[in-house]
Design a protein that fits this description.
The chain is mostly helical and about 475 residues long. The chain has one domain (about 15-210, about 250-484): Growth Hormone, Chain: A (Up-down Bundle). The protein is about 75% helix and about 0% strand. It contains 19 helices and 4 strands. It has helices at about 10-50, 55-85, 85-105, 110-140, 145-175, 185-195, 195-210, 215-220, 220-230, 240-250, 270-285, 285-290, 295-300, 305-330, 335-355, 370-390, 390-400, 405-435, 440-460; strands at about 180, 185, 360, 365. The strands form 2 sheets. It has a two-stranded antiparallel sheet. Strands 3-4 form a two-stranded antiparallel sheet. Strand 1 and strand 2 form a beta hairpin. Helix 3 runs antiparallel to helix 4 (about 110-140) and helix 14 (about 305-330) packs antiparallel against helix 15. The two termini are about 30 Å apart.
C-alpha cells in the first residue's frame, strides 16, 4: 500500500463505512440489551414473586440466580456453535430462547416451572453475551474496535435502565408489583413479558446484518468476506485482508480445547488472566446493586417508590458513564481505565461500607441515621460511575480481543462462563449473607476485591489498544505495568 490511501480517512466514503460499522455493531449489541434487561428485570419483581410463591430467602436467592447457571452453560457452548453455524444464526437462537423465557416466566404457575423458564432465559443470555462481543471484535476496524466493542456494555446499561424504568411504570400503574394490572395478571408478570419485544427485535436484526468476515473466510466464502470487509470495515484492499485472515487460519490448526491448555493448572496463562478478570468483575459486587437495588434501598428505610426511582437513577448514571468510557477507551487505553476504575470503585465501596455500618433497626423497621443515607447513595453511585467507566465495558472488549485466533473461541467462552458463575455466586449469596453478616461486611468484601482488581491489572493485564486481532500472540508479560 502507498500513501495514497491516507486521504480516504476524511472522505464521505470513509464516513459511510464508519456509519455501516456502527450500525452493524449496534444491531449485534442488542444482545447486550437482553443481557442488561434480564439482569435487572428481576429487581422489581423479586419481592412480589417471593410472596406469590411463598419463597424463603434461600429459595428467593436461588430463583433469582439459577438463570445465571443457564447463562454459564449458554456461554460455554456459544463459541463452538458460532464456529459451526455462524455468528448470525446463533444470535437468532439466543433471541428465541429469551423470547420463550419471557413468556414462560410471566405465566409461571409453580416454582419448578418458574425455575425452568429462568434457566431457558439464562441459556439465551449466555449465548448473546459471547456472540455480541466476538462478532463486534471481528467486524470492527482496529482503530475503533475499543469504542465499538463498548457498545456491548452500553447496550447492557441501556437494557438495565429501560427495564428498571419499565418496572417502575408498571408498578406505579398497578399500585404495587403484586397487584393485578391487565387481563388478571400481576404487574410483576408483565415486567417479564415486556422482554418479548427486545427478543424479537434482536432476532430480526440478526437476519439483517452481514456474517463475520473471519467466519466466512473459514468456510471458504472469500468473496463474501471481502465485500463485508470493504462495506463494513472500510478496508481499502479487502482481498489483501482476506489473504491475511486465510494465512492466519491455515497456519492455525482446527480450534480445539488443546489450544488453551498450558502448564499452569491445565490452562494457558492468558486464559487464566481472562478467567480471573471475568471473576473480579462480579466479585466487586456490581450485580448486588442491579439485581437487588430496589430491595436494598427498602432495607435501609427508603419507601417502595423511592427505591424504584433510586434504582432508575443509578441505571441512568451507568449509561452516561459507559458513553464516557467509549469516548476514551481507544485514546487512554484499557489498562489505565481499569486501574482508574478500580481506585474509584474502592472509594465508593468504602463510603457504602461506612454508611451501612450505621444501620439501625431490623426487618421492616430499619434506617440510616443523619447523613448516612445520602453517604450510602453517593457511595453506591460513585461505585457505579467508576464501574461503568472501566470494568463494565472493558472486560468484554478485552475478552473479545486479547486472545490469539487459535484460542479465541474457547478462551472467550471460558472467560464468559467464569463471569456468569461468579455472578451466580454473588447473586445467590447476597440475600442470605445480608441477613447473616449485614450489608457493611458485604460491601467491605466488595471493597477488598476492588483492591485485588487494581493489583491484578497493574501486574498481569497487557494493553491491547490499537492491535489487530491477527497480531495477538498469546504472550503474557510478567511485568505488564511497563506496557503503558
Amino acid at each position: 500500500m502507498t500513501g495514497t490511501a491516507t486521504p480516504t480517512a476524511t472522505t464521505p466514503s470513509t464516513q459511510h463505512h464508519r456509519g455501516r460499522a456502527l450500525g452493524v455493531c449496534i444491531a449485534a449489541a442488542v444482545g447486550g440489551f437482553l443481557f442488561g434487561f434480564d439482569s435487572s428485570v428481576i429487581n422489581g419483581a423479586v419481592d412480589s414473586m417471593g410472596s406469590h410463591f411463598a419463597l424463603n430467602s434461600f429459595m428467593s436467592g436461588f430463583v433469582v440466580s439459577i438463570a445465571l447457571l443457564g447463562c454459564a452453560v449458554g456461554a460455554w457452548f456459544a463459541g463452538r456453535m458460532a464456529d459451526r453455524y455462524g455468528r448470525r444464526n446463533v444470535m437468532v437462537i439466543g433471541s428465541v430462547l429469551f423470547l420463550l423465557s419471557s413468556v414462560g416466566t410471566a405465566t409461571a404457575f409453580s416454582v419448578p416451572d418458574l425455575m425452568v423458564w429462568r434457566v431457558v432465559g439464562g441459556l439465551g443470555i449466555g449465548v448473546a453475551s459471547v456472540i455480541a462481543p466476538a462478532y463486534i471484535s471481528e467486524v470492527a476496524p482496529a482503530r475503533t474496535r475499543g469504542a465499538l466493542g463498548s457498545l456491548q456494555q452500553l447496550a447492557i446499561t441501556i437494557g438495565q435502565l429501560v427495564v428498571l424504568s419499565s418496572n417502575a411504570l408498571l408498578a406505579n400503574w398497578a399500585g404495587s408489583p403484586s397487584r393485578d394490572l391487565w387481563w388478571g395478571m400481576e404487574a410483576w408478570r408483565w415486567m417479564f413479558l415486556v422482554g418479548v419485544i427486545p427478543a424479537a427485535v434482536y432476532g430480526i436484526l440478526a437476519f439483517l446484518i452481514p456474517e463475520s468476515p473471519r467466519w466466512l473466510v473459514s468456510r471458504g466464502r472469500t468473496e463474501e468476506a471481502a465485500r463485508v470487509l470493504h462495506k463494513v470495515g472500510g478496508e481499502a484492499d479487502p482481498q489483501a485482508k482476506v489473504e491475511e485472515i486465510k494465512t492466519t487460519i491455515s497456519t492455525e490448526h482446527r480450534p480445539s480445547f488443546a489450544d488453551i491448555r498450558g502448564n499452569r493448572f491445565g490452562l494457558h496463562p492468558l486464559v487464566w488472566i481472562g478467567i480471573i478478570m471475568a471473576a473480579l468483575q462480579q466479585l466487586i459486587g456490581i450485580n448486588a446493586i442491579f439485581y437487588y437495588s430496589t430491595t436494598l434501598w427498602q432495607s435501609v428505610g427508603f419507601s417502595s417508590s423511592q427505591s424504584f426511582v433510586t434504582s432508575v437513577i443509578t441505571a441512568a448514571v451507568n449509561v452516561v458513564m459507559t458513553v464516557v468510557s467509549m469516548l476514551f477507551v481507544d485514546k487512554v487505553g484499557r489498562r489505565k481505565l481499569l486501574s482508574i476504575g478500580s481506585i474509584g470503585m474502592l472509594v465508593g465501596l468504602l463510603m457504602a461500607t461506612a454508611a451501612f455500618s450505621q444501620q439501625h433497626g431490623s426487618g421492616a423497621h430499619v434506617s440510616l441515621p443523619g447523613a448516612w443515607g445520602p453517604v450510602a447513595l453517593v457511595g453506591a453511585n460513585l461505585f457505579v460511575v467508576f464501574f461503568a467507566l472501566s470494568w463494565g465495558p472493558i472486560l468484554w472488549i478485552m475478552l473479545a480481543e486479547m486472545f490469539p485466533n487459535r484460542m479465541r473461541g474457547y478462551a472467550l467462552a471460558l472467560g464468559t462462563a467464569s463471569n456468569w458463575i461468579f455472578n451466580f455466586i454473588v447473586t445467590f449469596a447476597f440475600q442470605p449473607m445480608t441477613q447473616k453478616v449485614g450489608l457493611s461486611w458485604l460491601y467491605g468484601a466488595f471493597a477488598f476485591f476492588a483492591v485485588v482488581a487494581f493489583v491484578f491489572t497493574r501486574t498481569k493485564v497487557n494493553e491491547t489498544k490499537g492491535e489487530e486481532l491477527e497480531a495477538m500472540t498469546g504472550q503474557v508479560r510478567t511485568r505488564a505495568a511497563k506496557a503503558s
